[in-house]
Write a structure and sequence with these properties.
Blueprint lengths: L1 H34 L4 E2 L10 H9 L6 E2 L2 E10 L8 E11 L2 E11 L2 E10 L2 E8 L3 E7 L1 H13 L13 E7 L2 E8 L2 E9 L5 E6 L13 E11 L2 E12 L4 E14 L5
Antiparallel strand pairs: 1-2, 3-4, 3-15, 4-5, 5-6, 6-7, 7-8, 9-10, 10-11, 11-12, 12-13, 13-14, 14-15
């Protein structure tokens, strides 16, 4: 009897997960289709209001003279750590980002020591969540609420380097910090986050820093960095193809992800 009950519970979890995944995939598909409609050619007049450093960056990476793209999809492979003491686990992932409407979906497969994990980081319309499951359907880690939502919105800002034309979005205000750094403030759904982008002497972004992102659901805020390099051209736009995410915790630096992009597409009409 216990075995029958166990199988019934597992079947329920699997069916529930499949249903939820289909709903989420449908939503991503619709968001990408909606956002793909918003595009236009970019010229110097579109960047007049921006800090000089950001203007130079947008010229160098091919946004000026190219197009504004309202969404981006990029896939990558790399390594991921669930926590500071864990071993590195191989990871395959895809990220979908739209700016009008604003949304972010990260979907990753992590080959952990516990087995294959499927993860989803989500932000849309003022709501963020993180849902990680042991394949195919066993809940492993789930978080939502204000702290997670703020953290997901900061990730949207950091990942603007993968769609630099989105720097033109009216959701972002820019301030010159120094000759080689600018601060971006992103607002959406009555929430505001900010972070600083740092540039090299050729005005390519080398890293992003935010002091507003929460470390999981601990309630703690530590400096969060994304380092990026190895710029390559996709559809006429130069973007970094290697990156790593780092928390600067008081006791030690915690690098939790490093990856290389293998494909990137703008203005994707669906998934």
């Amino acid at each position: 009897m216990k075995r029958i009950y166990y199988y019934a519970v597992m079947l329920f979890l699997i069916l529930t997960t499949v249903s939820c995944q289909k709903t989420e995939m449908d939503e991503i598909d619709e968001l990408m289709r909606l956002s793909a409609k918003h595009t236009y050619p970019v010229n110097e007049s579109h960047i007049n209001h921006l800090p000089e450093t950001l203007k130079n960056y947008l010229r160098n990476v091919g946004v000026v003279g190219g197009n504004y793209y309202n969404n981006v999809k990029f896939t990558y492979k790399g390594n991921f750590k669930m926590n500071q003491s864990a071993d590195w686990a191989a990871m395959d992932a895809v990220t979908y980002i739209t700016f009008e409407p604003l949304s972010r979906n990260w979907i990753g497969e992590i080959n952990s020591s516990l087995g294959i994990m499927i993860g989803n980081d989500y932000y849309y319309n003022g709501y963020g969540k993180m849902d990680i499951r042991l394949f195919p359907s066993v809940p492993f880690m789930y978080s939502d609420g204000y702290e997670l939502t703020i953290s997901e919105l900061i990730a949207v800002l950091a990942e603007i380097v993968f769609n630099p034309s989105a720097c033109l979005s009216n959701k972002i205000e820019w301030i010159q910090v120094s000759n080689y750094s600018v601060k971006g403030t992103l607002s959406d759904a009555s929430m505001t986050v900010s972070g600083t982008f740092y540039f090299d002497e050729n005005y390519y972004i080398t890293h992003f820093e935010s002091n507003e992102r929460y470390f999981g659901d601990s309630g703690n805020i530590y400096p969060w960095f994304v380092f990026m390099s190895d710029y390559k051209t996709f559809s006429g736009v130069k973007v970094p193809t290697t990156f790593r995410g780092v928390w600067q915790k008081p006791e030690a630096e915690f690098e939790y992800i490093n990856a290389t992009i293998n494909d990137l597409k703008f203005n994707v009409n669906g998934m």
